[in-house]
Amino acid sequence: MSKNLIVRFAGEGGQGVVGGSEIMAAAAAEVGYHVLTFATYPSQIKGGPAWGQARISTEPVLSSGDYLDVLVALNRYAYDHNIDELREGGIVIFNSEDFELEAGARTIGIPADQLARDSGNPRAANMIVIGAVAHLAGMPLRYLEGFVTQRFTRGRPGDDKIVEGNIKALHLGAEEAAKTGLSLGSPLDEPSEIVGERILIKGFEAACLGAMAAGLESFIGYPISPATTMLTYMEANFHGPNTFVGQASSEIESITAIIGSGFAGKKTMTSTAGPGFSLMGEGLGLAWMAEIPLVVADIQRGGPATGLPTKTEQSDLLVALNPGHGDLRLPVIAPGNVEEAFLAGAAAVNWSERYQGPVILLSEASIAERSQDILKPDVSAVIPETRVVSDGALGNERYAGGSVSPFPVPGGPGAYVANGSEHDEQGDTTHLPEVHIQMTERRFAKLQLLEDGTYEAEQTDRPVVLMPWGGSKGPAREAFERLIAEGDEIGWYYTMYLHPLPPAMLEDLRSKELVIVPELNYLGQFAGHLRSLGVNAHPIRQYTGLPFKVVDLMSAVRERMQTASGKLARV
Amino acid sequence: MSKRNPDYDFKWCPGCGDFGVKRAIEGALVTRSATKSEPIEKTVIVAGIGCSGNLVHLQEGPQPFGIHGIHGRTLPISWGIKSARPDLNVIIVSGDGDFLSIGAEHIGPQAKRNVDLTAIVMDNGVYGLTKGQASPTTEFEVVTPTTPLGKLDDKVNPLETYLAAGVSFIASSISTQVKQLQELIVEAMDYPGFSIVHVQSPCTTYNDTYALLKGNEKEGIEPLAKPIADDHDPADYVAASALARSRTIPIGLLYRKENSIPAHARLDAARARSKMHQQSVEDLLAAMKI
To answer: Is the pLDDT of residue A311 over 70?
Structure first.
């Protein structure tokens, strides 16, 4: 029996390869498997190489998986470019209407379009393939039948026929695979009973819902891959008499508009990706300077410039910390998985209200777009925080004191000028050195209010520790668990609160001989940041536009550990 | 601010047109606050960067709220305020550089949204605060520090620009006529939609156009600023366009679109029509249940 099934649907954009993996995952989640999906595709609507991958497991899934049990290749290019990732004993299903493969022991040619027509639903080619995969993995078809019935019963005339056609397609696919006599050897274990209330959710949805749980009132954004989904999710779902969702004409409009909304007393947010985030730099400086609460979600893609719009990378950390000119360093929260995306959405809003300033919710394509089954978040555990509003006691001294002070809301007492120029306590512009010193220190002192971030620490007595950030947490965690199981001596530290870091954690890290930081960028951005804080951190870097594979991380970590006792090469 | 900071280090030059604009805004706010029985704190002045933007700090009398942001972004900041709080009055104080150069990209979107705000644009035809460079409204061929060969770009016609962008209410005024300016500002604030009051506000240091605007009867120089005739119908877009393109600068109410529906009213109406409804986070999560 097997705990895992990793299946990749590869073809070209528009062929439904992402949809195939999502349906497979959703159907598996429905009967109690744990699932995680990952997709990669070019920045175009139709055509170009694309693939979607589903990992289905009897245990919680940490990464999208290293090697494929089944590769579904819809064209020759997809076969040629993905076959290397098939595990030994894996099986290829290929579209025999599109190309032929040399007769091999472990390949199954399926005329998917012809069979779809035979099923009575010409659009069910995906279901043919899914039926075949299910047969190979030993997954009972009744699981999928139940899912198909639920998914296509939408209260419309003709539902019955669509459901019937799709179920027939599943069976035709399964029969086609059965004819070959092939199987994956050990069939997938039965799923365990579903414990607690579980949901299937995408990362971007979780981030939006977390922010809403913390009392978000306004959301303004501009379309950009891979962050558009946040804007469209909010447009479709964030309704109410006291809410506003709008599409700006540029990211400069997005950031300055939410500055207006934050100034007007509302909890507000935008979403963007690298290029848009760069455009927001000056606005973020204004929000820091004028002390306006707001949240910017930066869903990282490959950069710089237009870069790799639909791929994943962790290369915006430095710009997230310092998006604008001058003396500033913004709070950054980077969730490591979908559960954390919900918590991070809530924490980002709460932090922005608490310290009265901009907070960056830093995520990445591979988390935002992934579907994952998680325990339904406990909404009641989110305690919305709201800025302390001025009652007029301080007159117009909006910026009084050495840390956060009551916030005057327009319409109420305490009229002042929210000023992006250096200013005194009442918001009047001044260039006096002593005031610039005082106000600069005030702005940085407010960050101390955010030093309550939680963190994970295991095997803390080890001199060498692994400390991933963001979406590299999953593969790093899987690598860590395997390393420990195989007797490697390594510790584990992790937090999604990248700035300010939990102080106790930072103290621990400073005492370590070596902190290994896996991250998806060339510069080793987080490792460099940690070194600037007095931690001997060295990165494991990857810049392919794809997430880490667990096996690659394990060997890189071991390599680092071997050199840890000697002198480390300069990075 | 109400409690003037003696160290506040911004000052306008003697004779600056912006003094007149400041008096007109102060008068308009007091008048409007009294007639509407509305506290002045319900007004927000959104300032751009430049000599004009500093007006927000120089307001005397009862104090409105203010935001002095970054160069060119008064319009989207104001959209953000109004979308969050339609009950607030938003007044923009900006200049020809801030509004028509770096900020020009925001005029069209706000006009199409018809955000209910009033922009007061002080036009002195020059970048004053950075000491005299050419602005969009500097005349063709004029020599400035950034146009030593004479300005090679055509002059922007602000009124024509606003009309073409679809701005709902457009008035043109001059800083020396404080009473008329004050009345136009009140009318613009009362108008439900995007209103602009474009003000000739000369710079006595780098571009003193007082004499040109006023003309000189004795020397036979016709005034550049010319009152709009009483028989002009502000609802007539074609007539307004003709005036905007005339050789002189028309002074008065140029254009006033009838049946203007501002952004927030459009949203309310669309929501009333829509089947989409408010859902709690719990509801939305429940819909994802496995």
So the answer is: yes
**Distance, in angstroms, between A515 CA and closest chain B CA?**
38
**How many angstroms separate the CA atoms of B89 and A421, rounded?**
23
**Which residues of chain A make contact with B76, given a CB cutoff of 8 A?**
248, 252-253, 256-257, 260
CB contact under 8 A, B65 and A205: no
Interface of B with A in 254-273 (CB under 8 A): 267, 271
The reply to whether B272 falls in a domain is no
In a domain, B84, yes or no: yes
Neighbours of A402 (CB within 10 A): 11
How many Cβ contacts (< 8 angstroms) between chains A and B?
197
Q: What is the CATH number of the domain that holds B152?
A: 3.40.50.970
Structural domain of residue B53, as residue ranges? 18-260
Q: Which of A256, A395, A427 sits opposite B80 (nearest CB)?
A: A256
Condensed to tens digits (0 to 9), the pLDDT of residues B131-151 reads 999 999 999 999 999 999 999
Give pLDDT, residue B2: 46
B105 touches chain A (CB under 8 A): yes
Q: Which residues does chain A have within 8 Å of residue B6's beta carbon, measured at their own beta carbons?
A: none
pLDDT at residue B7 tops 80: no
Alpha helices in A360-500, H assignment, sequence order: 365-368, 433-445, 473-485
Closest in B2, B77, B85 to A259, CB measured: B77
How many structural domains are present in chain B?
A: 1
In a domain, B203, yes or no: yes
- Answer yes or no: is pLDDT of B1 > 50: no
Which domains are assigned to chain A? Answer: 4-180 (3.40.920.10), 200-381 (3.40.50.970), 388-448 (no CATH), 456-564 (3.40.50.920)
Q: Which chain B residue shows the shortest CA-CA distance from A208?
A: B281
pLDDT digits (tens, 9 = 90+) for A175-209: 999 999 998 888 888 888 888 899 999 999 999 99
**Which pLDDT score is estimated for A564?**
65
Q: B166 CA to chain A: closest CA distance, Å?
A: 16
pLDDT tens digits, one per residue of B168-189: 999 999 999 999 999 999 999 9
Contact by Cβ (8 Å): B1, A426: yes
Q: What is the pLDDT of residue A192?
A: 82
Contacts of B284 in chain A (CB under 8 A): 209, 212, 237
- Asked casually if ipTM beats, i.e. exceeds, 0.85, the reply is yes
The DSSP string of A290-335 is HT--EEEEEEE-B-STT-BTTS-----HHHHHS-SSSS----EE--
Q: Is the dihedral of CA B102, B139, B120, A246 positive or negative?
A: negative
In this predicted structure, the answer to whether residue A56 has a pLDDT above a threshold of 80 is yes
Contacts of B48 (CB under 8 A, 6+ apart): B69, B71, B72, B73, B74, B92, B93, B94, B95, B98, B99, B103
Q: Is B53 helix (H, G, I), strand (E, B) or coil?
A: helix
Q: Which residues of B touch A217 (CB under 8 A)?
A: 84
The predicted model gives A135-164 an average pLDDT of 88
Residue B6 lies in a domain: no
In the prediction, which pLDDT does A105 show? 76
Would you tell me which residues 229-258 of chain B have a C-beta closer than 8 angstroms to some C-beta of chain A? none
Contact list, B83 vs chain A (CB under 8 Å):
218, 220, 244, 246, 257, 260-261
**Of residues A385, A26, A399, A413, the one with CA closest to residue A201:** A26
Least confident of A137-146, A199-208, A275-284: A137-146
From the list A197, A256, A431, the residue facing B289 with the nearest CB is: A197
Nearest to B1 among A240, A377, A396 (CB): A396
Question: Degrees (nearest 5) of the Cα angle A330, A335, A339?
Answer: 145
Report the residue from B70, B88, B278 with minimal CB separation from A282: B70
User: What pLDDT is attached to residue A191?
Assistant: 87
Q: Is B80 on the interface with A (CB under 8 A)?
A: yes
Query: Of the candidates B175, B167, B195, which has an alpha carbon nearest to the alpha carbon of residue B125?
Result: B175
Query: Which DSSP category does A188 fall into?
Result: B
